[in-house]
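step=encode ok
step=design start
structure_in=
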């Protein structure tokens, strides 16, 4: 979502966070914590967070092996996605993780777009002849 050498966060990840519910207090009611984790320094993360108006917790894994340990850094760079952990007796257990289209399960905007006549209009989509062909939305 935000590598240490980047000047700003990943556009696709930013779009994803923009589409998260601003009020996630229902998770608190169920004993579930939500946090975003990126490798960039805390100051960069907090600056971007404030500029976007995000209320979500965002922490830096910089200086730790978190991204390597959990597979979020690959040779080609950071991998966007979600991971879910169960914290039991102070030990985190990875219970689920997903990347790519798997992250869209919690994106209502993507789900709405998929149900429209034009869909997302992504470059790889095969629109019928005669239908408008536009660049992707984002």
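sequence_out=
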């Amino acid at each position: 979502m935000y590598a240490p050498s980047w000047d700003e966060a990943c556009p696709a990840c930013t779009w994803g966070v923009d589409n998260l519910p601003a009020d996630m207090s229902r998770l608190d009611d169920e004993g579930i914590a939500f946090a975003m984790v990126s490798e960039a320094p805390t100051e960069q993360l907090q600056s971007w967070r404030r500029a976007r108006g995000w209320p979500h917790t965002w922490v830096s894994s910089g200086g730790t092996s978190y991204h390597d340990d959990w597979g979020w850094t690959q040779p080609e760079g950071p991998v966007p996605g979600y991971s879910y952990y169960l914290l039991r007796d102070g030990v985190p257990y990875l219970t689920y993780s997903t990347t790519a289209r798997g992250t869209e399960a919690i994106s209502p905007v993507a789900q709405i777009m998929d149900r429209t006549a034009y869909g997302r209009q992504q470059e790889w989509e095969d629109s019928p002849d005669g239908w408008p062909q536009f660049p992707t939305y984002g």
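step=design ok
step=annotate ok -> Helices lie at 11-18, 25-29, 42-52, 66-69, 108-114.
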